[in-house]
Amino acid sequence: MIDAAELIGSGTGILFITLDSLRYDVARAAYDESLTPRLATLLPRDGWERRQTPGTFTLPAHMAFFSGFLPKLPQPEQPSRLWECRPPAFKVVPPRTFVFDAPNLLTGLAQYGYRTACVGGVTYFSRETPLGGVLPDMFDEDHWRPEFSSAEPDSTRHQVERALSIEATRTGPLFLFLNVSATHVPHGHYLGESTDTVASQKAALAYVDEHLARLITSLTDQRRWLIILCADHGDAYGEEGYHGRGIVHPVVMNVPFAAWVR
């Protein structure tokens, strides 16, 4: 079990990656079919956990994540949370949970000397709209450019290069966040198609594999990191007539999750 309180208290680096819109069934199928061989060597022994997201689209899901509510297991009994906002006095927090006495995780980490950096992907991290500045404003620094968006077929490579450049200039503990856009629509181009499907999202994840593995191994070659990979929500591609996100449907609510120390 991860002792996030000890790790963060000692200044361990934190790499938090959200694979935007990635469904659990797609991530599991790609893992089982050996389409993500590099990530498979890095993930915990059993690969992806099936968890349930606290939000049905990007903005509420990430607001929940940064407030202490990561995806939960689909079962009554839950493991200790990695991080949590200081609760009322009557609630007892497990000793392994990092408790931040601040309105959000990013502000709380700053109190422990962390620099917080965001490498955005989808529109909610782009500052192209008023809502597009809400999440970036929570970080010490945020980075986005059109090459990071889902419309760019090589977006993850560009994002990883920026992330590595941020790490190269670190002078203290770093919380490094990436919102991977490649798994967000449009991703039909990974199969040479104009329609987005389960198959094209799987192909997008296969593309992502090399670049995220390079990021993780490059970071962990130098020092210890707490690594969290998950999706913020899934997407429907016609199941029971549903399309997209922002709906309470199993393919939207069930997301892949993994956390480990390396």
UniProtKB/TrEMBL annotation:
Residues forming the Sulfatase N-terminal domain are: 14-248
Q: Where is the signal peptide?
A: none
InterPro entries from the xrefs? Alkaline_phosphatase_core_sf (IPR017850), STM4013-like (IPR047838), Sulfatase_N (IPR000917)
Q: Which Pfam families match?
A: Sulfatase
Record protein name field: Esterase
Query: Which species is the source of this protein?
Result: Streptomyces alboniger
Q: What is the lineage of its organism?
A: Bacteria, Bacillati, Actinomycetota, Actinomycetes, Kitasatosporales
